[in-house]
């Protein structure tokens, strides 16, 4: 079960404005980590379909960071 709010949700909503406000003060490593968190469990990292053999229900499960 997914929590109602995750760190990635905050990064996705506030990340672009944060990067703009701190342009020139974030190093490449910090920018890469922010992008990786924003992409976690999205189509950007790919995913797969999970299906129940009993009822036929299916859902897309996106890849998370290791």
Automatic annotation (TrEMBL):
Q: Which Pfam families match?
A: Zn_Tnp_IS91 (PF14319)
Q: Which domain of life is it from?
A: Bacteria
User: Cross-referenced InterPro entries, in alphabetical order?
Assistant: Zn_Tnp
Residues of the Transposase zinc-binding domain: 10-63
Name by which UniProt lists this protein = Transposase zinc-binding domain-containing protein
Q: What is the organism of origin for this protein?
A: Novosphingobium indicum
């Amino acid at each position: 079960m997914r929590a109602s709010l995750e760190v990635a949700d905050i990064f996705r909503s506030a990340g672009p404005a944060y990067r703009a406000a701190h342009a020139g003060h974030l190093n490449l490593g910090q920018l890469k980590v922010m992008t990786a968190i924003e992409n976690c469990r999205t189509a950007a990292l790919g995913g797969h379909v999970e299906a129940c053999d009993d009822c036929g229900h299916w859902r897309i499960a996106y890849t998370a960071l290791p």
